[in-house]
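Hi V.,

You were right to ask for the full record rather than a summary. Here it is.
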Amino acid sequence: MVVQDHAALAEDGPWRGFDSVARLVLVSHVLGGLLVGLTVKVADSVVKTFAVGIALVISCIGSAILFGSSLAQQFVVGVSLVVMATVVYALQPIPERCCVGAVQPVSVIEEHLSPLKQPVEDRTGVDSGEGSS
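Predicted structure:
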């Protein structure tokens, strides 16, 4: 594009042929991409799944409003389930130590490892017999 249309780009710029609707769509896609990138970076998989469900619901309702499409009864049931699941998940308190791979303080790790630092006899309660007469 730059090589073949260099003169047109120099004269009119890269936005030649874009009207306000096309620019609005472009900005919408850019903002959506940034939002998706932020969600992927910050949120866990459960939150991402709920975000996809809510986005589908909003898209379908927006389509019904903007384009006059009808919503089936199954859609209304599905929307109800998605909204209820999202509310239940949002109201559920998150436990402090919910993750298996969570970073633990050094003191907690040392507490779990301290039995392993003892000699074998002390751990099993059986004397190995060495040095006894």
